[in-house]
Write a structure and sequence with these properties.
By secondary structure, the protein is of the alpha/beta class. The chain is built from eleven helices and 13 strands. The structure holds pyridoxal-5'-phosphate (PLP).
């Protein structure tokens, strides 16, 4: 039996709609949108526009706000963070950020551009808001929050943080890598200025495509990170102010966009609440089935509503070794180590790493029962 439980890294398998749409577009069109004026290029442009509109529907994006395509959430975060800060700014991040935020702010700090502070998330996975406003300084310009931890699945109170930040005139960027496609996201209600997503995780699309949603008024304050051809305003020597062109220099990844279009058709035909509830049920079943293994230690409170991600260690078993045994001997694919988030491991006091099981769309009851059986066997006879 082969069991894939690394959905937080990327989703596998993908809905058939993804393959169908990629094949259809690549075989029948595959021209560059926004460049040539011939009919096929215009059709390609329509496919890209329809994908933007799907993102707008899924996340209830306002008519005036913008959807920009990038290659992944890492690129989106780099564009948004580097484009919004200026020399002398103070920035806030949380202690469960992925390296795609942590390394960016650390780099900006090393370059002498910003200083930053870390909002400490509790060991149980909650973010305390009581003293939140004490972290603001006169030069605080930006707060970046991971919507849901890729290590533990805990969900951050983004709406509330956004409300407080906006009271202090601080802009908010949300890293939606894990939440997009799983949580019901309403961009109008989220109280953030930029929401960054990646196509290949719970949005079920292919790799190489991601993006960000940006409020119209904030988009004007973001400096471009990548300059180049856009197929528009070619006579001008600087990037156009027109969106999405301003942040989409170079030929678009139309194959990725076509695949994402297929994935979004699939997701929009479902209720995301049903998806997460089914996955959470499997999460709870797995937790119940392994929680009594001697020496097992889970990271964060396991009894709250969160993403279907379990991070743990079993005393006496190295996480890397355990992941290897699970894969090579039992066909169970998990992830071990720091999951690109040393900050989160500091938060959970698991600096040696953990084993992470992330449940997804195609995980079945039988697979979870099998994993429970195998982990109990390994854990009880170590
Ligand atoms: C919270 C979070 N942010 C950012 C990323 C980076 O995603 P990508 O590699 O698609 O840019 C990940 C991926 O693991 C993640 O979990």
């Amino acid at each position: 039996m082969k069991v894939y439980l690394d959905y937080s890294a990327t989703s596998f398998k993908k809905p058939n709609e993804v393959f169908k749409k990629i094949e259809e577009f690549y075989k029948s069109n595959n021209t560059s949108p926004g460049r040539g004026g011939y009919q096929l290029a215009i059709e390609a442009g329509k496919m890209v526009l329809s994908t933007r509109n799907q993102i707008k529907s899924l996340f209830n994006v306002g008519l005036k706000d913008h959807v920009i395509f990038t290659k992944n959430v890492t690129e989106s975060l780099n564009i948004a963070i580097k484009g919004l800060v200026k020399k002398g700014d103070h920035v806030l991040i949380t202690s469960i950020e992925h390296n795609s935020v942590y390394r960016v702010v650390e780099h900006l700090k090393e370059q002498g551009i910003i200083e930053y502070d870390i909002i400490q998330v509790n060991k149980d996975g909650t973010l305390p808001l009581d003293d939140f406003n004490k972290l603001f300084k006169v030069n605080t310009n930006l707060c970046i929050i991971n919507h849901a931890s890729n290590v533990s699945g805990h969900i951050m109170p983004v709406e509330e943080i956004g409300r407080i930040c906006h009271r202090y005139n601080v802009k908010v960027i949300v890293d939606g890598a894990q939440s997009a496609g799983l949580l019901t996201i309403d961009f109008k209600e989220l109280n953030c200025d930029v929401f960054c997503f990646t196509g290949h995780k719970y949005l079920m699309g292919p790799t190489g495509i991601g993006g960000f949603i940006v409020k119209d008024e904030i988009s004007k304050k973001i400096e471009t990170l990548i300059d180049g051809g856009t197929g528009s305003f070619s006579e001008e020597s600087t990037m156009p102010t027109l969106l999405p062109d301003r942040f989409e220099a170079g030929t678009l990844n139309t194959i990725g966009i076509a695949g994402l279009n297929g994935a979004l058709s699939y997701l929009l035909s479902k209720d995301t609440i049903d998806i997460i509830l089914k996955e959470k049920e499997l999460h709870d079943k797995l937790y119940e089935g392994i929680k009594d293994i001697p020496g097992i230690n889970f990271y964060g409170d396991m009894l709250v509503f969160k993403l279907p991600v379990l991070s743990f260690n079993i005393k006496g078993l190295d996480s890397g070794e355990l992941a290897g045994i699970l894969d090579y001997q039992y066909g169970i694919m998990t992830r071990s180590g720091l999951h690109c988030s040393p900050l989160a491991h500091e938060t959970f006091n698991s600096l040696n790493g953990s084993i992470r099981i992330s449940i997804g769309h195609y995980t079945t009851n039988e697979e979870i029962e099998y994993v429970i059986e195998v982990l109990n066997k390994l854990g009880n006879y170590k």
